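re: that chain from earlier
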Amino acid sequence: MNPAPNANSRAGRDNAAEGLAASGFVPRDSANHRQSNALRQFRSTASLRGGGGSSSIRTGTTTAGTSSIASRSTVPRGAPRVGYAYPESSNGTAKSVTDGGDAHSEADSLLGGVAGSSSAAGARPVDLSSRGANNARGLPKRTPRSRREEEPAAIIPVGLGGRGESDGDYDEGWRTGLEVEEEEIGLLAAGGGDRDRQSNGLSGQPPKKKKPFSLKRLFALAAPPSSKPRTIVLNETPSQRKKSPHPPNIVKNQKYNLVTFLPLVLYEQFKFFYNLYFLLVALSQFVPALRIGFLATYIVPLAFVLAVTIGKEAYDDYIRYLRDRNANSARYSLLTSSAAPSPHSHHASSSNPASAPFKPTPSSQLRVGDLVHLEKNDRVPADILLLRTSDPSGTCFVRTDQLDGETDWKLRVAVEKTQALASDADLLQVAGEAYADPPTKDIHTFVGNITLRSWPKPNHVEEEADVGTEAEDARGDAVTSGEVVEPLTAENMLWANTVLAAGSAVGVIVYTGRETRAVMNTSQPGTKVGLLDHEINRLAKILCAVTFVLSVVLVALNGFRGHWWVYVFRFLILFSSIIPISLRVNLDMGKTVYAHQIMHDNEIPETIVRTSTLPEELGRIEYLLSDKTGTLTQNEMEMKKLHLGTLSYGVDSMDEVAHQLAVAMGEEKHLPAPNLSTGVALASRGRRDMSSRVKDVILALGLCHNVTPVIDETDGTVTYQASSPDEVAIVRFTESVGLTLVERDRTSMSLRTAAGAVLSYDVLEIFPFTSESKRMGIVVRDRQNGEITFYQKGADVVMARIVAYNDWLEEECGNMAREGLRTLVMARRRLTEEAWKAFEEAYRDARVSLGDRNAAAANVISQHLEVELELLGVTGVEDKLQEDVKMTIELLRNAGIKIWMLTGDKIETATCIAISTKLVSRGQYIHQIAKLKSPEQARDELEFLQTKLDCCLVIDGESLQLCIEHFRQDFIELSTQLSAVVACRCSPTQKADVARLIRAHTKKRVCCIGDGGNDVSMIQAADVGVGIVGKEGRQASLAADFSINQFSYLTKLLVWHGRNSYKRSAKLAQFVIHRGLIISVIQAVFSSVFYFSPIAIYQGWLMVGYATLYTMAPVFSLVLDRDVNEDVALLYPELYKELTKGRNLSYKTFFTWLMISLYQGGAIMLASLVLFENEFLNIVSISFSALVLNELIMVAVEITTWHMLMVVSEVITLALYVVSILFLPEYFDLAFVLTPQFVWKVSLIVAISAAPLWIIKYLKGKFAPTQYAKLRDF
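^ sequence. v structure.
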């Protein structure tokens, strides 16, 4: 052979590119290179030779021994491209593709049309889509000489199952694809990559370079999901799939790993000011000049706090690890030719999957392109394209409650061509690729195509006669070849973490691991920190300043002599107890108690606290933003009214609707007698017209929906499954009037009349409801007469623009809305066969487009179908109020909470609900702002609103957006002064924006409550989010801080539990601060008396025991205190108003406790100095004993309601202190302590420090009682 030109030269690269194109690896974009549907076979030889260590490629020479390769490879427009390159041998010369002797068999395996496969020659794909990326990997640069040189070289199956850029891990002679980090995948067999290459006939494997140190790998930082579309080649070899550049299918919910655990946990703790403060204090004790007392005095408390936190985090993360391990080790059946099936296993039926070539595989080892078999109740391990189901119609149901929170089953549809195959095993003979858009979070949208080039003979051969030609594969099976492109939507996808509800299914994996919809939607929301925590953090900074000032003052009083700055630091350490380290522990333990009390309250059952750091926030809510449907209402729809233009049927006349329907169906007849007058005959004809109109609208309701009847296999009962309860309510209504849905699949639907006649229809196309379109449509063909009809239903605001001119739609919708009914407009259009064919062709083109597919499809529907629709009627559905909603709203308003209702419903309906729920007071003026078109109109409305601050504002979404964009400050200032606001036609984004706007402007606590997925953004934007477990699912409940079952539970949650949590935590925090202040005052007095020396009066166990054993239990008993009974709190919600003012923990109360600490600390220390004997040891025992007793008495004085836990804790603590004295002789002189003199001196000191405060509190309660004190004995 002639030596190939140097690959590093321009000519060498050009020849290599031309050789690849000639050998079929490079698809031609030009029409001159397009081939017929039959597979074109040819032979080529690709020889690789080189010298001097350079890599060379020679192709295009046809010789004996070459292989036959399918040359046609088509990918949707915009798909990335790939080239192929070959490895050098160890001596620098490249190997021939015929080495190993398997070229023929490998090439023959490609006859199925697998585009771009290169395993026979050991080639790996190279991404030539981005020249810069390749140059970064060491590919030589060149200046393009022709258009062909500038174009990408070939198809690349990019993404999950594709190939991409080089990772630079191989020698320069090895032109490689995207990097696959086996360390990252972790579950590949050791050396698997080498074995794969050897199995493909490669020799002289390039040595793999050692990976450089990577912080990314060290800290397990996940790369972001790919932003490129991808092409998944069907039936790639396992070795090719293992080399996939896409993330492994590993579930990883752990927050930490062995390396990051301690750093991250410690960071989370020390980002709080007081924790960092104590860390610095503890570290200072390792400096001899700054050491005060025993090292353990400062190390042990901090270590205890950190140990508790680290232990909790470690336990929680270990639980997450166990869950991850279980999910990753779950085994799934992999459909693969390497599973050693029986000789006839490729003809296994779907009903008997055991006979198919299935291989059990752990979830973590699944790769993009794998064919996975799922059984009933299996969790879907990755995002999977559905290819076949056990249902002959190609449909299956999935439960998505773990993904979107919705409890209704979702219908999924298999790809039509693969569903038609004879068996699951036949999928192994399919050649083609699936094109998918980049991974996104949107679970309702998916854009892709699947291109099939050859497939086994399907069950119905005649259906494939016009698609392609038949051939035989290597085993003699009939194979159909050609090219078929089918569009893919979200209905063809099984998202990860959903559950197959019935039957079995087989699909190909499209996205894995962090690129699945489930993982991308599992974002950790920002940590919410309560206002009380912010206030305590501010107080901690003030205490730090007090500590510093006090230290400087004591040094200054002694004169700044010598190393005075050392004395300043020593005093800072001595007074470090001013900021008590136990404050955070006590508050966190208190929050846990509050959460437990809320979740175990029998009057609000099944309430869940999901954010345990926020119970105190429930006591300070000033704005409540509520959804309407499902939150204030039950979300249980009941048909109340049916209007047909000139006819209107109410709830009491539905029997007449059933009668008229029966007449129209021919099941009852109203024929006039022969001798009747002409007037009677005309009346009879009018009744027939009336019946016909009733039939039209009922038939439209019975056909235009996405409901599927599901028969329970155990008892035979029929349940309706749909994505919305509204749909089910409509189908139940048609059933009640004599038109029952009995069967439904993706291609047909059957209805049964009251007389038992069955009406059968072919479903030609469905246009699902979306929040953007606000309508749903369906095209059906009547099997009896072949008539094609397009039915559509939707909101009045969009249907009014689509239906033909009428003079009653707007008026009647307004009338129903004023009655509190939700309206739905029904319309239809009859289509000719030609019109349908024209639409079908245009719609198919739009659906396979890879641009803005949704917009293109909507445009086709608008042009061909939504033209002058015939208006059939309007339905009015009632959504009943939830139980006790009126009483709850009235009570919350009396508590001083301003309530806003944010809904997507129309103005009239929302206004009606606002009045019926007592959101609007009786006789209160309602000011309505709607349909504003300009900023000038908005300004006029806001100026008028300034004169009506006692009104209720009702505003639509369009006007709201206009006001926020142009007059944000003015609008929020005015609206927050109103007692109630109703915002209609609001999008989820607008709801969240309103919540953020109120928070930012007022700096008040905002609570948002909702029940649906459209309320999640609003709930997460609030200070406190409350989710209701609704009919449509648990998405809002799962995203909320608190989950409740109904709106009325909000009363007790706020007025009782919120009140107690806030008042208890405020008192607990201030008492813990007081406990630290008083001992610091004692230390300051002692140092002042003894020449301003930084010597600790209490050391060792005394300091540790003071904050733990001697005072902790009585002080913590404050978390069970309550100032009024529950009945009183609910009967007088006005008490809640006091809490919103923040008076329980303010600068005033803080300085009050500061003065108390100064008085009591000074009194204890000075009295002890006066009374102590000749030995210093006595002053320690007297003052410390008086200090402990003073704190126990202060707990009893401050607590409002004595309870058993408080009494027991006081007694036990006192007993422990007395006993501990006997074991601490180094601190207590037992000969002195056991004398009456010690007892009376300590008693006198305690009386001096505590008695005046008790007297002041008694007199204040007697002559100036608080509001709650007046009602305490009610």
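The chain has 43 helices and 39 strands.
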